Amino acid sequence: MAALGAGSWWSSGHLCFGAKVTSIITPVKLDRAAGTDLYEQVAAEIRRAIAAGEAAPGDRLPPARDLAAVIGVNTNTVLRALRLLRDEGLLEFRRGRGISVAATPARGVVVEQARELIDSARRHGYRVDEVTELIAELW
């Protein structure tokens, strides 16, 4: 992959969040043959980085166009992923200021762990009602 140019969000093979260099997006392993939509895969990678603390509250994301170019997907795919994360409360969209990690990304950690639980439960053959019952018992 080529660098996007001087002053871009691309530096030493990593994408930048504000002034902080992080591996949030690259290298992203998108599986185009998977049953999961590409936008969901992109969102999962950003969600993972936020949950892992690689992106702190207030860190700005690169423009969607730059993310799309680095990842190798359509800009609309990235925008859809970013809107999903905004709806989950992980990202904030500010006119004239771009997109940044929300001030309270703790919800993102819980969302990511819930997704992992759901994936694990599905792999082991659990039904939704069984998982819901288990969570209620443990609560």
Automatic annotation (TrEMBL):
InterPro entries: Tscrpt_reg_HTH_GntR, WH-like_DNA-bd_sf, WH_DNA-bd_sf. PANTHER family: GNTR-FAMILY TRANSCRIPTIONAL REGULATOR, HTH-TYPE TRANSCRIPTIONAL REPRESSOR YTRA. The lineage of its organism: Bacteria, Bacillati, Actinomycetota, Actinomycetes, Micrococcales. Residues 36-104 form the HTH gntR-type domain. Keywords: DNA-binding, Transcription, Transcription regulation. This is GntR family transcriptional regulator. The keyword DNA-binding applies. One of its GO terms (molecular function) is DNA-binding transcription factor activity. It holds the Pfam family GntR. The keyword DNA-binding applies.
